[in-house]
């Protein structure tokens, strides 16, 4: 039956479609099940309908990077309300490659400098960026963390909340949505034993901006990914300017602050 077939793709945490939406399920099952059947089945699931988020698109300045490992964005997710279900883990240190959208989550029991340092060391064993951007949280400015970043030749900088790590916000939306659906489906609040599988699913799910899975991005297809992200420069240059000479404009002020660069 179609229901049993769909159930496998929806509940298998290692599938890119796991606890996903209509598009993810459609890509996973292909032509085996009609779209209207998938939609009706999803709408019968509390774990889907109760956590179906409204998409709100806010225009932001794009972060333009040239390739893999050029710039990462990091954020600390507060998971304290779930710590008693997860062996005392209170935070998730989330880091995303701005170019490939590949993500790493590291569960932490506290946000001391030593814990943040341990988290970054685990991440950098796999991949290390040239630039690391965070918000203005003091946990990232800790002496232990800063000394390590300098040692690893990683340039660190922060920006104000208005422009804070917009790419890592994707982590808040997609994998966290999978997590809440998982909670509802299995009537649990324990994520510590499945977080790796949830992120595996995210990294192997087609990302709309790069038009492929983050896990598929590599040195050989960087040019294709760049084009998918930013388009044809020649077309951008031919666009009509928004303003003319002598137009009166209103300037939105923001501060690019607390820039920390490693010394060589």
Automatic annotation (TrEMBL):
Cite a single GO MF annotation.
Answer: nucleic acid binding
Q: Pfam families in the record, alphabetically?
A: rve
Domain (Integrase catalytic) ranges = 62-222
Q: Which GO biological process entries does UniProt record here?
A: DNA integration
Which SUPFAM superfamilies does the record associate with it? Ribonuclease H-like
Superkingdom of source: Eukaryota
Protein name per UniProt: Uncharacterized transposon-derived protein F54H12.3
- Give the source species: Araneus ventricosus
Species classification: Eukaryota, Metazoa, Ecdysozoa, Arthropoda, Chelicerata
Give me the gene this protein comes from.
Answer: F54H12.3_112
């Amino acid at each position: 039956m179609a229901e049993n077939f769909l159930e496998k793709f929806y509940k298998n945490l290692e599938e890119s479609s796991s606890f996903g939406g209509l598009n993810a399920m459609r890509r996973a099952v292909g032509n085996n099940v009609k779209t209207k059947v998938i939609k009706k089945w999803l709408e019968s699931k509390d774990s889907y309908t109760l956590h179906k988020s409204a998409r709100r698109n806010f225009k932001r300045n794009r972060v333009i990077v040239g390739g893999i490992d050029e710039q990462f964005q990091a954020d600390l997710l507060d998971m304290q309300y779930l710590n008693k279900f997860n062996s005392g883990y209170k935070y998730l240190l989330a880091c995303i490659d701005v170019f490939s959208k590949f993500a790493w989550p590291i569960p932490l029991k506290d946000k001391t400098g030593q814990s943040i340092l341990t988290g970054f060391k685990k991440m950098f064993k796999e991949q290390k960026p040239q630039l690391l951007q965070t918000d203005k949280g003091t946990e990232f400015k800790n002496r232990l963390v800063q000394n390590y970043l300098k040692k690893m030749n990683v340039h660190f900088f922060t920006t104000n909340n208005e422009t804070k790590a917009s790419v890592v916000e994707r982590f808040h939306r997609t994998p966290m949505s999978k997590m809440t659906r998982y909670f509802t489906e299995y009537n649990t609040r324990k994520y510590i034993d499945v977080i790796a599988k949830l992120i595996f699913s995210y990294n192997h799910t087609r990302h709309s901006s790069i038009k492929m899975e983050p896990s598929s991005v590599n040195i050989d297809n960087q040019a294709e990914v760049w084009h998918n992200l930013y388009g044809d420069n020649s077309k951008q240059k031919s666009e009509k300017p928004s303003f003319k000479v002598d137009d009166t404009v209103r300037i939105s002020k923001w501060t690019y602050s607390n820039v920390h660069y490693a010394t060589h």
